Automatic annotation (TrEMBL), chain A:
Key words, A-Z: Periplasm, Signal
InterPro entries for the chain: Bact_solute-bd_prot1, SBP
Name used for this protein in its record: Sugar ABC transporter substrate-binding protein
Compartment(s) of residence: Periplasm
Family, per entry: Belongs to the bacterial solute-binding protein 1 family.
Native source organism of the sequence: Pseudaminobacter soli (ex Li et al. 2025)
SUPFAM superfamilies: Periplasmic binding protein-like II
N-terminal signal peptide: 1-22
GO cellular component, one term: periplasmic space
Presence of the UniProt keyword Signal in the record: yes
Keyword check for Repeat: no
From TrEMBL, chain B:
Listed CDD domains: TM_PBP2
Key words of the record: Cell membrane, Membrane, Transmembrane, Transmembrane helix, Transport
TM ranges: 12-33, 74-94, 106-129, 141-161, 182-207, 238-259
PANTHER family the UniProt entry points to: INNER MEMBRANE ABC TRANSPORTER PERMEASE PROTEIN YCJP, MALTOSE TRANSPORT SYSTEM PERMEASE-RELATED
Protein name listed in UniProt: Sugar ABC transporter permease
Keyword DNA-binding: no
Compartment annotation: Cell membrane
Top-level taxon: Bacteria
Domain ABC transmembrane type-1, residue spans: 70-260
Keyword Transmembrane in annotation: yes
GO annotation, cellular component aspect: plasma membrane
Length: 437, 274
């Protein structure tokens, strides 16, 4: 009896001692399928690292962005690992807000990261965040509707072809719109799409002296084509459609084409949610005839460690686990290859099991490899970034311009007025921010 | 004839009252209905008949722990309400029964703090919380919610106290009651309906406050408002799950409101008819 009591006492004492020494990492993240999946699989990490406990703070994307920015700028220290986009990484790294990830372990294989993604997360050759999943943009189209209309998607479609095809397959009586595009205002909504589209039209946001370019013909062509396309072949209420709204329309069979993030491919081809899962084809982001540019859309959600973190070693251990090849295999084992986080590692796209389970693997890789965020436009630019401009002012400016362009789609403003106002606002903001001397 | 008109009028006013109540309650009702739909159903269009699935509730429970944010909400809203009342009762007493020349100005100034957008003081507040170690603590959120709701509590109590005849307090004073005894034994019992409704309203306001509670908390002190916000997704469908999370979050306060509605209405109309 005494021995039992002693043993229980010793166990309790060691449990208390362990609890006292266990480090708790607070991880800020967005609510998307891949992140939720990771939260469910963290037992694998905590089993291997019993001295590290994890707690999650999951938030809506914009709130998360606002909160982690406030926290990191004020050195609040609320988070040990932050989920951030490749828009923030270079800006924050330059500010000294992120720790260099130089302790990810010998078997991490940093050279396996897709070069385009790795480049976007590095500054002076140093990695400041590790990609959890990555995406570019591509065309998703209904093969059955194309066949019915006698159309064949070219290997490298142009905007001219997309326009013709969209108008041809539009069937208002059947409730089918030829094309669904983002119209909802926001730097990460319609402006992500329009910036990429303008890149593929040969345009740019700023010239080498940071002069806004909305008064140039490329932007006028872009906005005119976009507005006319949505008017002739888009769904009703397109000015309030973002990623989720278009996803629903496509899944319900109401869009002939949808040009958006490659991550959507796994949703539209999932028979559980999509009524057209077996009728979807994929093609690279279009370009304007004669312009060798396919939009340069490149986005990744990444894990980074805020500078000044007291738990940097444990945080890097977690990041190494969450973005490793081992994690990919873990997801494949538990949830199937189609559900592994895409767009971060070269080895994934050489895996036969993945190619078999994910028919969109090859076009996704092609789209990602085609993106070069160091040269978003065929014209010279003073910035990096594909569907965004990697400067701190872009969030505010992009959203303001996005509201003007959304008003064009809603029929509340003309293309010329919207461009004139966009130019005026941009010149004012860039002068105020000190870019224009 | 007069009786017939009266009955008809009564019927009409009852129908209008029900209609108004339905319109006011409709967003909550629709949230509850949506929580029993599948995700594609939720976004398909307006429909009042759900397929009746419990999948969203199961998914919400599987994804997040409900109990911890619930407990945080209870502690924060009750704590901030009690502190606000402790401060506001004597403040409202002095303003109602011993007004000074600038009392009205002070009252207006207190109310004017509610006119400023909260985001305007986010960074200073964040820095104060960081430096005092109050970030992501229940104590910090209790303090901030007390401050946020204090003007409304003072105003409400001031209005109720003004309805109480000053002569009763004078009589108590003449009988030798101290200020504290006057407030505790004479004023408070007379103003119970007003204090109760102020308390209930403040609990509701604190329970639903999302700006500060989301921004000043992380994992430890996050209340149900943060629990709801965590179900909004940038990529993928989430309306049905968000509705299920919202229903779970508002259920306790809805039930509390239902059971205390008599007290709440009595307090809100206290002194309205003389």
């Amino acid at each position: 009896m005494k021995l039992t009591t002693l043993l229980i006492g010793l166990c309790s004492a060691s449990a208390l001692a362990f609890a006292a020494h266990a480090e708790t990492l607070t991880i800020a993240t967005v609510n998307n399928g891949d992140m939720i999946r990771m939260q469910k699989l963290t037992d694998d990490f905590t089993a291997k690292n019993p001295d590290i406990q994890l707690q999650w703070v999951t938030l809506e994307e914009n709130v998360l962005r606002e909160r982690v920015t406030t926290d990191i700028a004020t050195k609040g220290g609320q988070y040990d690992v932050m989920t951030i986009g490749n828009y923030e990484v270079p800006i924050w790294a330059k500010q000294g807000w992120l720790l260099e990830l130089n302790n990810l372990g010998a078997d991490y294989d940093v050279d396996d990261l897709l070069p385009a993604i790795r480049g976007g997360l590095s500054l002076d050759g140093k990695l400041f965040a590790a990609p959890f999943y990555g995406e570019s943009a591509m065309i998703m189209y209904r093969t059955d509707l194309f066949e019915k209309a006698g159309l064949k998607m070219p290997e490298k479609p142009t905007w001219e072809f997309i326009g013709e095809a969209a108008r041809k397959i539009t069937d208002r009586n059947a409730g089918i719109s030829g094309i669904c595009l983002r119209g909802k205002a926001g730097w990460g909504e319609n402006m992500a799409f329009l910036t990429a589209m303008d890149n593929s039209f040969g345009g740019r946001w700023f010239d080498e002296k940071w002069q806004p370019q909305f008064d140039q013909p490329e932007w006028k062509n872009t906005l005119q084509s976009y507005a006319e396309l949505l008017k002739d072949a888009g769904p009703s209420g397109a000015s309030s459609n973002g990623f989720n709204e278009n996803l629903t329309l496509f899944q319900q069979g109401k869009c002939g084409m949808w040009i958006d993030a490659t991550v959507a491919a796994s949703f539209v081809s999932n028979p559980k949610d999509s009524t057209v899962a077996d009728k979807v084809g994929y093609a690279i982001f279009p370009n304007k005839e004669g312009i060798n540019n396919h939009g340069n859309w490149l986005w990744s959600w990444n894990l980074g460690v805020p500078a000044g973190s007291q738990k940097a070693e444990a945080a890097q251990k977690f990041i190494a686990w969450a973005t490793s090849k081992h994690y990919t295999e873990l997801v494949a084992e538990k949830e199937g290859w189609a559900n592994v986080p895409p767009g971060t590692r070269t080895s994934l796209y050489k895996n036969e099991n993945y190619e078999k389970a994910a028919p969109f693997a090859a076009p996704t890789l092609e789209a990602m490899n085609a993106a070069d965020i160091t040269k978003p436009s065929v014209k010279p630019v003073p910035y990096t970034g594909g569907q965004f401009v990697a400067i701190p002012e872009f969030q505010g400016l992009g959203t303001t311009v996005g509201q003007l362009f959304s008003a064009v789609v809603a029929g509340q403003m003309s293309v010329d007025d919207a461009l004139a106002q966009a130019q005026q606002v941009s010149v004012r903001e860039m002068t105020r921010a000190g870019y224009i001397k | 004839m007069a009786r017939a008109i009266s009955t008809r009028r009564k019927t009409v006013t009852t129908v209008v009252a029900w209609l108004v109540a339905l319109i006011i309650f409709f967003p909550i009702l629709y949230t509850i209905i949506t929580s029993f739909k599948t995700e594609p159903e939720a976004i398909a269009g307006i429909s009042l008949i759900p397929s009746g699935t419990f999948e969203n509730y199961i998914e919400v429970q599987a994804q997040r722990d409900y109990f911890r944010p619930f407990l945080n909400s209870v502690v924060i809203s009750l704590g901030s309400t009690l502190i606000a009342l402790l401060i506001s009762v004597p403040a409202a007493w002095s303003m109602a029964f011993s007004p000074a020349r600038r009392t009205k100005d002070i009252l207006m100034w207190m109310l004017s703090t509610k006119m400023m957008p909260a985001v305007g003081v986010l960074v200073p507040m964040y820095l104060i919380f960081r430096d005092t170690g109050l970030l992501d603590t229940r104590t910090g959120l209790t303090i901030v919610l007390t401050l946020v709701n204090l003007p409304i509590v003072v105003w409400m109590l001031y209005t109720y106290f003004r309805e109480i005849p000053g002569e009763i307090l004078e009589a108590a004073r003449m009988d030798g009651a101290s200020t504290l005894k006057e407030i505790v034994y004479v004023l408070t019992p007379m103003a119970v309906p007003g204090i109760a409704s102020t308390m209930l309203l403040n609990i509701i306001l604190a329970w639903n406050e999302s700006f500060w509670t989301i921004r000043l908390s992380a994992a430890n002190a996050a209340p149900l408002t943060a629990f709801i916000a965590s179900f909004s997704s940038p990529q993928g469908l989430f309306w049905a799950k968000l509705s299920a999370a919202s229903t779970l979050a508002i259920a306790p306060i809805l039930i509390m409101g239902w059971f205390s509605q008599k007290q709440l209405v009595r307090g809100l109309t206290f002194g309205a008819v003389k």
